[in-house]
Structures are given as structure tokens and as C-alpha cells.
Design a protein that fits this description.
Blueprint lengths: L1 E2 L10 E7 L5 E9 L4 E9 L6 E2 L7 E6 L5 E6 L9 E6 L6 E2 L8 E5 L5 E9 H5 L26 E2 L2 E2 L3 E9 L10 E4 L6 E9 L2 E7 L10 E8 L4 E9 L5 E3 L4 E6 L11 E6 L5 E2 L16 E2 L5 E8 L2 E8 L6 E5 L4 E7 L3 E8 L2 E9 L5 E3 L5 H4 L2 E2 L4 E7 L2 E8 L10 E7 L14 H9 L3 E6 L8 H4 L6 H17 L4 E11 L1 H10 L7 E5 L5 H7 L5 H6 L8 H6 L13 E6 L7 H13 L4 E6 L6 H4 L2 H16 L36
Helix pairs in contact: 5-6
């Protein structure tokens, strides 16, 4: 069998956004396939019996957010098909057959679509500038419309860009569209429900005339606050009322037909160290229920709680001790129980139907497929094997769980050995550190391909969930308060010490990499130890002060995790920054970054790289144009492949197990698929 390579990413099919049909007989989902510079994302439908898989939308543009109408006679979705730019628009497709029709043509694009219970209306959100609202470009744009690019860019907000995009005066507002175009001799009608210099989000229906949504507030600066309002909007009278004000990272809602509204809550004090909770507001009485009060797990900020068909049980997902888990709890109780959980697997998304739950799961032996389960979780059935053709011809290694104790705390990790592993031989070690810092790794998910590629190249791969990770309780998550570096390093290196006790691991041939917070840790660790032969730091935080000033809303990580600001403790933050120790680095270190990364802007990567250069360290700085912080997960496929290949090439150049020159001694493209010749594609005979 062939070994997995970085270029295999081009052939890996991704599964996203499952939705159970109202009759429970089908599941719609997004099938996403990498191209060179983009992705083709198309909606497919499969029967819940696992047969009759069929493409439901044309292969043009990027489709997302499939949503069945309440009766199941139509499917709404968002797509960039036919657009001159990336603005997604709302489309509706009859499920009995026929062509999809474009419903909107708006300046801000469309997201967060929600059908009204009677199927006549869809609520949605778009982000649009005041000038475009004034000209009604958020209702319909004229032919030839092109969004303006500000020149100069005038900024008067605390958070004025995010991930890889500038806000540029846009605000998120809630709209409805009456689907008159689905009825004879009528036209669609779009209405703007909100306006002004605020951000609204999370529309959810109680009934066909009552819509709930959120508004981000907070005095004096909503950008510098987690406070948001839950608003009721009576569409028959156009009257609104603020029902409740709360705080949280996520501003998503889910309502029942009798006015129970599930929402996310985060404690505003050092909020990045606190877990996100689910709460329920009774719109009539104002009572607040806290069904996750006794559950020591955090909900992701995008993990929208869902109501079961009886509208009394709430369903939600959390990270859970190296796995993704789906839970359920009665809204007025606190005894949450797991419905779905498979050891070490990722549960990427789930949708609760009347009788079935559809979900996407990635496991150690595949990067993700669609499954269904009974609502109680007793029976599961796999509906797709979309990567079977690729995997049937690839050797996939099975990880081994490695749990160990450090400073009185148990830490969970995994070890992945190369294909055709021989315990009588020795292998180099590749250590990976996750981002976040409050993230959690499994054996699968978005890292499946990278881990398997490193193992296929002859490395034993070790990764773990050190203290600070989500999924192990709030005390575990908050253990890195005011100390990202030493606490995490202690947990990682204790795991490394466990690994190198195995005779097949060469303790003198260890390599290190990580992205985002993992990039911070890679840079931190090479400033504290010369244990590693070489390292690759990706999209990292290198200087906490410049990160605080240049990042998007993630500056709250400094205020929360370190309980300080640069004005209060500049020397303390410098001591806890990798750049404060970069002059001690001797480990050859490759620095990878994205040009349009506004979560961890490149300025501090430039500083770290320059210090390495000034002190004679083997280093190189690789920057990816038109990429943001999500490079490793959803960047341009050619860049994702190039990134993994550069990690492998950098490690190989300092490895005694690979007879190749250092990357610094090779031509820029040598050893990379973008620049290989036939001879260079031959396997390395000296690779383990």
C-alpha cells in the first residue's frame, strides 16, 4: 500500500453541516472537495438507510447552510454560484425536482438563515455598511455593483478586523425575506428588521410572527464587551422588546414554539479561563434556567444548543476528554447525559431531528463521514464512506493512547507510529502542540492528515492535551493562568520523557511544531531547551504586547489568561513572551505565517524571526499570501499542502534518518510537490 503524503489533501473529501429532513428519511449535507486555490462545496442528500446518495445542487461556486423547509418541500441554502465576488446569496430549491432560484442579491452577502415555522419566510443576517443601507443595497444591488474598497481606511473601532478581513464600517443586521417567488404571480420581499451602529445576530423563530435575535451592547464600547441583549421582534406590529441582557462569546439562540430561548453564557471576569454554559430564558416569565450548571465542560462559542422534538430536552456538543460529545438535558434540570461519544473521535457537527440525529464524525482511520443515530444514541449507522477510494490504497496508522501524570495531574496524549512499524528499529520523534490555548485534540479531526503524513514519513508522532486544554473541566483549563509557557511545556515534556523511554524512539532525534498557541509554545520551548533537533513555529503569538495591540478580539486572552494588560505589567508580559527569550535559541527554527492573519498578525513573527537571524540561528521565514489564521484548516489547498511539505522538509534536513540536505541548502522548491521533477519524487531509500 502507498503511504499518505501531503499532496493527498487534494483528494480528501470533507463533510459538513448535516441536516435531517422533516420526514426523517434523508440527510442533506455539504460535500467539500479541495481544488488548487479554492474548494468546490456542493449539497448532497443521502437516505437515512445509507443508500441513494445523490448530488442535490449544481457544482458551481461554494454552497453552504442547507436548510429544509418545515414541510420538507424546499431546501434553502447559501451559495456563491454566479457571483463575480465571494458574496454568498440565498437560494431555494424545490425538493421534488426543478431548478434552484436565487432569492437575494444583496451587498453584504447572506448567512445564518432560518425558516419561519409556516415556511413562508426566511430570516437571515448580512454584514453591510451604513452607506449601502442608505442606498438600499442591502435589499437589492444594481447591475454591475462592486463593493467599494476604502482608501484610505479610516478606523474608529476597537476591533476593526477579524481573522483575515477588515470590518470596513460593516455592521451585522437581521433581515427577513417573504418567499413570494415560491407562489404564483408574487415576488420575494426583503425587509430590514434592524439598523444603526450595532451588531445583531442569531435569529430564531418562536412562531411565524415572533422572531428573536441578539444585539451586542456594552458601555462605553461594545467591541470591548461580551455583553449582548436578547430581543423579541413582533413582525405583525414591528414592535421590539429587550427580554434579557447577558454576556457570552457566542450570540446564537434557539427558541421553542412556547418562548423558551436557549443561549450561551460566559462569565465576563477573566472569561477566557471560564467555561461557556448553556442557559434558557422563559420569554413570558423572565425566568432563567441553567441546565449545564453541574456539567464541568465548556460549549464551543459556535455550538448552538438545539431543542429536541418535545421542546423540553436541550442538545449540545462539548469537547470531552479527547473526544467530541453530544449531550442532552431537560431545560429545567441539571442532570446532563452523554448521547454520543466515541473515544478519541471528533464530533464536528450534529443536527437533531424528530427521531434521528445526523452528525459528522472523524475517527483515527478516516478524516470524516456522515453518521446517524437514534435520538437516545443507542444505535448508530454510518451513511457515507466518501474517502474510501483514497483510503483503500493508503496505509493508515492506528494511534496509541498515552496517559501520564505530571505535578499531580493526569494528562492525555497519543502516539502514532509509522506504517510497517518495526519495534526492533529506531525512529525519530515529531512532537505537536495544539493551539487555543483552550482547544482540545483527538486522534482525528483537522489534524488527521498532518499526523498521518508525518508518521508515513518515518516519524513517531506524539501529541497531547496539556493543562489549559478544554474538555477536562474548568480547573484543568484555568491551570495556565498567568503562565502559558512553563506549565504547558512541563506537561508536554513529561509526555516526551515517557515516549523516549521506548527503545524504538531515538531520544536524540526529536522535532517540534505547533500552530497559533502551538506556535507560541514551539517558540517558547526552543528558547528554554536545546532538546529538539529542529522546530517549525506556525502562526504563533511571539510577543504578548504586540499581540494585544494588533490582534482582533483575541486581545482578551491577555486580559483573561494573564489578568493584566501591557500598561499594567509590561515587563511581566515580556518575560512571558517567546521573543523575550529568543536570544537564547539555538534550535534550527522555521517560521511559517499568513500575510492576512489578523488573529496572530505577522508583526511579532517578524520580530521573532529577526532575533533568530541576528543571533545566527538556522532559520527561514515563509509567508503565505491571501491566507489568514485558518491556513491549516481551510486555507487554499495548495498552501495547506505546501505547509505540511515544508514542515517535513525542515525536519528531514536535520534528521539522521533522512539522507537529504538542510532546507536552507536546497533550492527554494526542491522537495516540494510544486517544484518536484520525476527524479525528486522517488522515495527516500534511507527513510525509516
Amino acid at each position: 500500500m502507498e503511504r499518505i503524503e501531503a499532496v493527498d489533501f487534494h483528494d480528501i473529501v470533507q463533510v459538513e453541516e448535516p441536516r435531517v429532513s422533516p420526514d426523517g428519511e434523508s440527510v442533506a449535507f455539504v460535500r467539500k472537495v479541495p481544488d488548487d486555490e479554492s474548494y468546490a462545496a456542493t449539497i448532497y442528500v443521502v437516505s437515512t438507510g445509507g443508500d441513494a446518495l445523490r448530488r442535490f445542487t449544481v457544482e458551481e461556486g461554494v454552497d453552504s447552510q442547507p436548510r429544509w423547509s418545515p414541510s420538507g418541500d424546499r431546501l434553502a441554502f447559501v451559495s456563491t454560484r454566479g457571483a463575480d465576488d465571494d458574496r454568498p446569496q440565498l437560494w431555494v430549491l424545490p425538493t421534488a425536482g426543478g431548478e434552484a432560484r436565487q432569492v437575494t442579491n444583496v451587498a453584504g452577502g447572506v448567512r445564518s438563515i432560518e425558516w419561519a415555522p409556516d415556511g413562508s419566510t426566511i430570516a437571515f443576517v448580512q454584514s453591510v455598511r451604513k452607506e449601502d443601507r442608505k442606498e438600499d443595497h442591502d435589499i437589492d444591488v444594481p447591475e454591475g455593483f462592486q463593493p467599494d474598497s476604502p482608501d484610505p481606511r479610516v478606523i474608529d473601532r476597537t476591533v476593526y478586523r477579524s481573522m483575515e478581513q477588515y470590518v470596513d464600517g460593516k455592521r451585522s443586521h437581521v433581515y427577513t425575506v417573504d418567499l413570494g417567488g415560491d407562489r404564483p404571480d408574487e415576488d420575494d420581499e426583503i425587509k430590514r428588521l434592524t439598523d444603526g451602529n450595532w451588531d445583531y445576530d442569531g435569529p430564531t423563530w418562536q412562531d411565524e410572527t415572533t422572531l428573536y435575535y441578539t444585539r451586542s451592547v456594552g458601555e462605553p464600547d461594545p467591541d470591548d464587551s461580551l455583553e449582548y441583549e436578547i430581543i423579541s421582534h413582533d413582525l405583525s406590529t414591528d414592535e421590539t422588546a429587550v427580554l434579557h441582557t447577558t454576556t457570552g462569546w457566542g450570540t446564537v439562540l434557539s427558541a421553542t414554539s412556547d418562548g423558551l430561548i436557549a443561549y450561551l453564557f460566559s462569565d465576563p471576569e477573566q472569561t477566557s479561563l471560564k467555561q461557556t454554559e448553556a442557559k434558557v430564558l422563559d420569554a413570558d416569565s423572565g425566568d432563567i434556567h441553567h441546565p449545564t450548571a453541574d456539567l464541568d465542560r465548556t460549549l464551543g462559542y459556535a455550538a448552538t444548543p438545539q431543542w429536541g422534538p418535545n421542546e423540553e430536552q436541550l442538545f449540545f456538543t462539548t469537547p470531552d476528554e479527547g473526544s467530541g460529545a453530544l449531550w442532552t438535558v431537560a431545560y429545567d434540570e441539571t442532570d446532563a447525559r452523554r448521547v454520543l461519544r466515541e473515544d478519541w473521535s471528533s464530533l464536528d457537527s450534529a443536527h437533531v431531528g424528530d427521531d434521528l440525529i445526523a452528525f459528522v464524525r472523524s475517527e483515527w482511520d478516516h478524516p470524516g463521514d456522515l453518521f446517524v443515530s437514534t435520538r437516545g444514541g443507542a444505535e448508530e449507522h454510518r451513511l457515507t464512506r466518501l474517502n474510501a477510494k483514497l483510503l483503500d490504497d493508503r496505509a493508515v496508522s492506528r494511534p496509541e493512547e498515552l496517559c501520564y501524570e505530571n505535578e499531580g495531574t493526569e494528562v492525555q496524549g497519543w502516539l502514532l507510529t509509522p506504517p510497517d512499524f518495526d519495534p526492533e528499529k529506531q525512529y525519530p520523534l515529531a512532537v505537536e502542540v495544539h493551539g487555543g490555548p483552550h482547544a482540545m485534540w483527538t486522534t482525528s479531526g483537522t489534524m488527521w492528515h498532518e499526523f498521518q503524513t508525518l508518521a508515513a514519513r518515518g516519524y513517531v508522532v506524539f501529541w497531547s492535551n496539556p493543562r489549559g486544554s478544554a474538555g477536562y473541566g474548568e480547573d484543568f483549563m484555568s491551570a495556565i493562568e498567568r503562565d502559558w509557557g512553563d506549565v504547558t511545556m512541563s506537561d508536554v515534556m513529561t509526555g516526551v520523557e515517557e515516549v523516549i523511554e521506548r527503545e524504538y524512539v531515538d531520544e536524540n532525534q526529536a522535532f517540534l511544531t505547533g500552530g497559533s498557541f502551538g506556535g507560541y509554545m514551539t517558540a517558547w520551548m526552543v528558547g528554554q531547551t536545546d532538546f529538539f533537533e529542529s522546530a517549525v513555529s506556525q502562526r504563533g503569538v511571539y510577543d504578548l504586547t504586540s499581540f494585544y495591540g494588533s490582534t482582533d478580539g483575541a486581545y482578551t486572552l491577555v486580559e483573561g489568561d494573564f489578568d493584566t494588560t501591557p500598561s499594567e505589567e509590561p515587563e511581566f508580559l515580556w518575560e512571558h513572551s517567546p521573543t523575550g527569550h529568543a536570544h537564547k535559541v539555538e534550535t534550527p527554527t522555521l517560521v511559517l505565517h499568513s500575510d492576512d492573519d489578523y488573529r496572530t498578525p505577522a508583526c511579532s513573527a517578524e520580530l521573532f524571526y529577526r532575533i533568530l537571524r541576528k543571533h545566527g540561528v538556522d532559520t527561514r521565514f515563509v509567508r503565505y499570501p491571501e491566507e489568514g489564521h485558518e491556513l491549516s484548516r481551510s486555507g487554499q489547498p495548495k498552501h495547506i499542502v505546501d505547509r505540511i511539505e515544508r514542515i517535513v522538509r525542515w525536519f528531514d534536513g536535520y534528521s539522521e534518518y533522512h539522507d537529504v540536505p538542510r532546507a536552507l541548502d536546497r533550492d527554494d522548491e526542491e522537495g516540494l510537490s510544486a517544484g518536484e521533477t520525476e527524479d525528486e519524487e522517488e522515495p527516500d531509500e534511507n527513510a525509516a
